[in-house]
Structure formats: structure tokens, C-alpha cells
Write a structure and sequence with these properties.
Number of domains: 4
CATH class of the largest domain: Mainly Beta
Number of strands: 34
Number of helices: 13
Largest sheet: 6 strands, mixed, barrel
Strand order of the largest sheet: 12-26-13-24-23-30
CATH architecture of the largest domain: Beta Barrel
Radius of gyration: 35 Å
Structural class: alpha+beta
Strand content: 25-35%
Length: about 600
């Protein structure tokens, strides 16, 4: 007997499991059972699971019976004419929705030509096996799945025209590409999602070659001339806001230029850009430490008796200022009220970002690269016809990663640029590579995409031909200007006395186990003495009992609270975090005895 579960609850048993499932399927297709019902027969456990719960991901498939698709050419013609609808096809049992469980019992064919008697379903189109973003990658059927996943992630991270009303919005940390373009090699999905209205990259000339060893590993080289002409240029927007909060006792924050009497007053230089209302003027160029919105807050923790005291009534400074390493131009100012009726001020800062060493670029095929060098245009290699590439990409990035779609897109983009047409690169239904190669040959280029190149510095001809073509390249949001972080000394944690963490707070850079190994391997082990004493502290220890002793600096005497003053007490350097551990052990009534011995 096979157990049956409905929504994971046991409801009964059945003798012939496969017949029962077949009967359920027929009844659902006839419309006697709800379309939302899905079922799955598990051979290993000999159970049937019926599911009608919400929140399941279900996908449509064409029903196949006796090796033939139920979706006939007549159905397709009726759909095109508008005589039938999708809903009608679902009701008729031509198309049915299956979930992840029922899919286990299905044998699905990618195309109608491959149908056999064993097949139960047919994909509506082979490209449906991919997601929305992945289906926009051209020639995706020539790539490895892991690279396609990476490629779709890169498209989500790319800088482009994310919204046409970006000037009216206050979005957190966004970038807008100055000259976005529509790809030459595109998928049909780009038309479906209206990609022309929000493109996210640029068509560039890319050459596969090495250049003085600058493009080792995942490094790419950019022609500085291309940057000067606007390649990859974008604007970075960042919002800042301040609110006049209300406190108990009728006290409120004030937005304005703080007086010198205010606790925590900065310097006059920091407030120089503020206008009379305490807000920086639109269009002002601001640098780090400059105040954007001047604000004064009432004193904290007002007690009953302190209300009339003069000392306690000193207001404190709580302005919004730029943190370390930030700069830009004030792009927009909004003064409004929020839901509580408090005055609310929002500012947006803009910053022009020209690609620099350390910025990240990628193609749609999961081939990422970091800019390692901007080559002067006069030193760039050039083709026999005078074409200078915008990007030089390392040829070592192709064999192990097997992104063949990357290479085909280069050839397709080259042909599209020469013919002045878009190349259809839809997965499983693209313009064949043979056709592109023939077209290239017909317009007088080599069909394999290679060209004779000359060294831009010496003018000599390269011995090997260079593979060159056009490609849609993406600039990603990971810019070195947002990640650059350095610190000398600064804020420390109260508990451990070690530097705080985080770039925004001006925190320290942690030297961990692996970084320590690098120092040692480089023969710089003495550097660890300096790196590892961020919380150095001097502790006095009694050599008799091993407990922490006391040093009275006023009387200049040392003594042990247990053994008295006639014992040997030594000053020992240790990490404050270790001293904290010893103190915590003592609070647990554990006796941590510190045994000392001389190094020499």
C-alpha cells in the first residue's frame, strides 16, 4: 500500500500508485480537479505527495501524449490571430503548470524534434530554462552554467540608466552611466524587457592579446584615449539627510549654523559653505570634514534638578558632515516634513567617476577584469586597417573558463558594426556562427576574426595575428573610490582597546592569521611586533603568587594585594584583550596564575 499525503498530512493509502497518479493527472487536465494541484510519486519512499499550498514556484510546460505535442500549429495561428488565449490553452489541458516535486516525475524535451514516446512534456521554448537576466546573454548555449550565473550577476551589478527619473530620486549609493548604448549582439529578451530604455553598458573594440605583462590574471588594459572620449564614465550619487527630532520636555533639534558656545563646535572653516538656514548651497563643491547640514541638539539626559542649571543647558553639535575620503558637488536639496511633522532635510551629492586603476569591468559572459593600466593612446597596438582597441583582454582567460560565447559575441559584434545591423544572439536560436563568418569574409575580413597588428611603441608587426572584435562591456558598481581605506591611529573600542572596525567609522585593518603568515614568508616577521600591539598595555605581576599587582604612581611604590610589598613585582607588556580574559576568569572565581621567566 502506498501512503498518500496532502499538504504533508497523511490522508490514506492506495494500492496501485502509478494508476492513481495517472488518474489524478487526467482528471486535472479535464478540469475536474483544481489547476493548482500538483502531485509527486516518490519511488524510493513509495509515497504520493499532493500539494495545493501557496508560495510554490510553478512553471508552464506543453503536454505531450504518445510522443506528440498537444500544442498544434493551429493553436499557434489562433494565438497570433487572438482567437484563443493562454488561459484557454491551460483549461483545455494543452499547457499545464508543474512544481518542483511533479517535475521529478516528468520527462521533458527541449525541442519538438527530440520528442520520443517516453516524453511527457515539452518546453514552450528552449530559452525558458534560463531566467530573465540569463536569457539576455547572447550565445549562452556556448557557455558553462557557472559562468552564465556569474554573467547574470554582473548584469545586475552593472552601471547604466537604472531609472529615467534618477534626477528626482533620493536613492542610496547609485551610479548612472553617461553614454549608455544598446548592444549590437542582442537576445530577443532585450526587446521583451524594453532594454533599449535602460541600457547598462557600451559597445567597445576588444583585442585578445598580452601587453607588457600588465594584463596578467584578471587584469584588463584600457586605452586612455577611450576614457578621454567618455568610455565608462559615470556619476555616483549619494544621499544625506537630517531631521529636527522632538524630545521629551518640548525640546527639539535646530537646523542652523551652530554658535561657538555649543559643545563639540568644529572650526569656522568646516561651516564656511553653510547658508543662513544651516544647509549647504546647491552646486557647492564639498570635501571631507565639510559640514553639509548644521544641526544643534538639546543636552542629553536632562535630570529634574538640572533644568535650571546653566552648565547642564549647553547644547551639543550634531551636524551632518562628510566622512573621510568623500567629496563631490551638492546636486539637489529638499526641505520637507516627514510623517511625524518634523522638519526633514535631504541632500544629494554627485561625483563624476572616470575609470581608474582598480575599477571593475565585465562582459555578459562572466569574464570579469580589474583595470591595471591605462595605456597612452600613442602606445596602443593598432590593426593593419588602423583600428585601435578600447580594451586589451588576456587570452589566458578563455581556455580554462570555456566561455566560447564571449568569442562568438566578438565576431558577431564585429560583423554587426561593419554591416550596421543588430546580430540576433538568442540562446538556442541565434544567427549561426558559420553565417557570421561568411558575412565577415564577404566584406573583406578574415573569417576567424583575427587581424594583423602592429606594436604601437616600436611600429613593428606582431608575429601572430590578434583576435579582435566588438563587444558589449559593462562597468560594474565596484569602484576603488568607494573601497579605498587606510588608517594611522583613530577610534578604539572601550572594552578591548583595539581599533574599531569598518571603513565608514575610520576603523583599522585587521592583520589576521594569514596576513601574519605573509609577513613571515616575506622575511618581515619583526613587523608583527609593531602590527600586533594595537592594544599593548603594561601590567604589573607579582612573581610570588602570579596575580596582578598594583603600581601606585603617586607614591611610586609597587605592591601585591595578596603578598604585600616585600615581593618581586615585574612590569610585563601584554595585549589588553589578554588582560581582559584574565579579569573575566577572575570574575568566574578561577585563579589564573601568571608564571614569569626571563627571556635570557
Amino acid at each position: 500500500m502506498t501512503d498518500i499525503f496532502l499538504n504533508e498530512k497523511f490522508i490514506g493509502t492506495v494500492e496501485t500508485a502509478k494508476e492513481f497518479v495517472k488518474h489524478l493527472r487526467n482528471e486535472r487536465r479535464r478540469g475536474s480537479l483544481p489547476q493548482d494541484l500538483n502531485f509527486y510519486y516518490d519511488d524510493a519512499l513509495d509515497t504520493i505527495s499532493l500539494d495545493i499550498t501557496r508560495g510554490r514556484s510553478r512553471r508552464p510546460l506543453v503536454v505531450v501524449e504518445q510522443g506528440k505535442s498537444k500544442l498544434t500549429p493551429q493553436h499557434i495561428q489562433d494565438l497570433l490571430k487572438g482567437e484563443t488565449t493562454w488561459e484557454k490553452l491551460v483549461k483545455e489541458g494543452v499547457i499545464e503548470y508543474v512544481d518542483a516535486g511533479e517535475e521529478e516525475n516528468c520527462y521533458i524535451s527541449l525541442s519538438e524534434d527530440e520528442l520520443t514516446k517516453d516524453h511527457t512534456h515539452l518546453e514552450i521554448g528552449p530559452v525558458v530554462i534560463l531566467g530573465l537576466t540569463t536569457s539576455t546573454i547572447p550565445y549562452a548555449n556556448f557557455g558553462v552554467s557557472s559562468r552564465l550565473v556569474r554573467g547574470s550577476i554582473f548584469q545586475k551589478q552593472s552601471v547604466g540608466m537604472y531609472a529615467s527619473n534618477f534626477l528626482l530620486r533620493m536613492d542610496t549609493n547609485v551610479s548612472v552611466l553617461h553614454y549608455p548604448q544598446v548592444p549590437i549582439t542582442k537576445s530577443f529578451m532585450q526587446d521583451v524587457i524594453n532594454f533599449d530604455k535602460h541600457p547598462s553598458g557600451q559597445n567597445i573594440v576588444i583585442a585578445l592579446m598580452s601587453y607588457e605583462g600588465y594584463n596578467m590574471d584578471d587584469a584588463i588594459l584600457i586605452n586612455r584615449g577611450s576614457l578621454d572620449r567618455g568610455f565608462g564614465r559615470s556619476t555616483f550619487f549619494k544621499p544625506y539627510s537630517a531631521e529636527e527630532l522632538r524630545y521629551q520636555g518640548g525640546l527639539v533639534d535646530e537646523v542652523g549654523i551652530p554658535d561657538k558656545e555649543v559643545k563639540g563646535y568644529r572650526s569656522e572653516k568646516d561651516y564656511r559653505l553653510l547658508e543662513e538656514d544651516g544647509v549647504v548651497s546647491t552646486g557647492a563643491k564639498v570635501k571631507e570634514e565639510d559640514v553639509l547640514i548644521g544641526k544643534i541638539s538639546p543636552p542629553r539626559f536632562l535630570g529634574e534638578f538640572e533644568e535650571f542649571s546653566i552648565a547642564a543647558n549647553i547644547k551639543r553639535e550634531s551636524s551632518i558632515a562628510l566622512s573621510h575620503g568623500e567629496n563631490g558637488v551638492v546636486d539637489m536639496t529638499l526641505i520637507t516634513e516627514n510623517e511625524e511633522g518634523n522638519r526633514f532635510i535631504q541632500l544629494r551629492l554627485r561625483n563624476t567617476r572616470i575609470p581608474e586603476v582598480g575599477d571593475k569591468f565585465a562582459s555578459r559572459h562572466g569574464q570579469k577584469g580589474i583595470v591595471s593600466y591605462m595605456i597612452p593612446p600613442e602606445d596602443m597596438p593598432f590593426s593593419v586597417s588602423g583600428i585601435i582597441p578600447d580594451i586589451i583582454f588576456s587570452p589566458h582567460g578563455i581556455p580554462s573558463r570555456m566561455t566560447i560565447g564571449h568569442l562568438i559575441e566578438m565576431v558577431g559584434g564585429k560583423m554587426g558594426a561593419l554591416a550596421g545591423q543588430y546580430i540576433d544572439g538568442t540562446t538556442f536560436d541565434a544567427m549561426p556562427e558559420k553565417e557570421i563568418r561568411k558575412m565577415l569574409h564577404d566584406v573583406g575580413f578574415r573569417e576567424d576574426g583575427t587581424e594583423v597588428f602592429y606594436n604601437g611603441i616600436s611600429g613593428k608587426k606582431f608575429t601572430s595575428r590578434i583576435f579582435v572584435g566588438n563587444m558589449y562591456y559593462l562597468r560594474l558598481k565596484h569602484m576603488v573610490a568607494n573601497k579605498l581605506h587606510a588608517r594611522a591611529t583613530g577610534k578604539i573600542q572601550l572594552l578591548t582597546r583595539q581599533p574599531i572596525e569598518g571603513r565608514a567609522q575610520g576603523g583599522g585593518l585587521r592583520v589576521g592569521e594569514m596576513e601574519k603568515d605573509c609577513f613571515v614568508a616575506h622575511g618581515a616577521s619583526l613587523l608583527l611586533k609593531e602590527r600586533f600591539d594595537s592594544d599593548k598595555t603594561v601590567v604589573y605581576i607579582c612573581e610570588n603568587c602570579g596575580m596582578l599587582a598594583i603600581y601606585d604612581s603617586y607614591k611610586n611604590r609597587e605592591y601585591c594585594p595578596k603578598c604585600g610589598s616585600n615581593v618581586k613585582i615585574s612590569a610585563v607588556e601584554m595585549s589588553y584583550a589578554f588582560k581582559l580574559l584574565v579579569d573575566e576568569l577572575k570574575s568566574l572565581c578561577i585563579y589564573p596564575q601568571l608564571l614569569l621567566r626571563n627571556k635570557y
